[in-house]
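The records we work with from here on pair a chain with its fold. A complete example follows; check for yourself that the lines match position by position.
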Amino acid sequence: MSDTVKKVVLAYSGGLDTSIILRWLQDTYRCEVVTFTADLGQGEELEPARKKAELLGIKEIYIEDLREEFVRDYVFPMFRANAMYEGTYLLGTSIARPLIAKRQIEIAAETGADAVCHGATGKGNDQVRFELGYYALNPDIRVIAPWREWDLASRTKLIEYAERHQIPVPKDKRGEAPFSTDANLLHISAEGKVLEDPWQEPEEYVYSRTVRPEDAPDQPTYVEIDFEKGDPVAVDGARMSPANLLTQLNKLAGENGVGRLDLVENRFVGMKSRGVYETPGGTVLAAAHRGIESITLDREAMHLKDELMPRYAKLVYNGFWFAPERHMLQALIDESQVRVNGTVRMKLYKGSATVVGRRSPDSLYSLEHVTFEEDSVYDQRDAEGFIKLNALRLRLAKKREAGT
């Protein structure tokens, strides 16, 4: 592939690393750079990114509010699947990457760019997620990954490069950062530096979206979440847009210390890494969704979903959001959600989110059948034949063992 690049779309945060990448692209490839900054609910002011890009001579600057699309088209479909990577991780970073990749490819088409660029390192998962997304949407796109190309291998070299090229360096970036973070409306992650020893408990300053569970209110908070076709649509009876609903749950859950996770996970590239995650609203939603499914889904449909969930979660984690097998699984999952309607009542208390009530117009729960009192709909004598038929193969195997 030719090294000639005419124009590149850079996923640009406005931070030190991507500002250095921006100038490095100009110096190394002598190409035009288009910056793209996505508001996914990270809670930061994005206009400084525009000013930095302008300072570095950028003419085409995209800053877009993608919060609603992010929650509606990425977070909610994933939550319909009850997806958790390795049983606990709600995939907050993973699910943001395909949307960023999609918009980069779209902007490349709009601006006539022949390349895209990300700031992910060569050790992590994000390089894979971004690039699988790029290639799935434009097989011929040129991908530039500076961390795999340049010789700026340390924080010192990065800062020296920035100062040499008059790139503003925040004061807190002049020393070694205590850890790195990534944030969006679903979660915030922290990893590296002071968190690299998995034996050491994270200090309280690592957390920013949840209060310490011990400091949460002494009285529980109750919240009701309405679902339609598997998606949450209202909190305490008030209908909200997807992003506003998740924002509200983040607030309620964060105030009650809900959503902290200290995890050692298996990266796609092969190494283990320790991450500390806060997913307050998502933790509540995950429990509530399973709560409404418990009364609306057929037993075997639920069990099949549970069997498929680890595969779905692995696809999202590894960056295969646009792969045909993920689309196939999504179609099956969405079919299962047609009657997942109703209301779940959650109890939030000092770090826990517990289902304490559920009701649905499409409930399969039958008090008549399950009651311990006398009923007229279930003949208990039917169970004898059911048990004997299921025991038949066990009895035959035992007889063979005994030689009878």
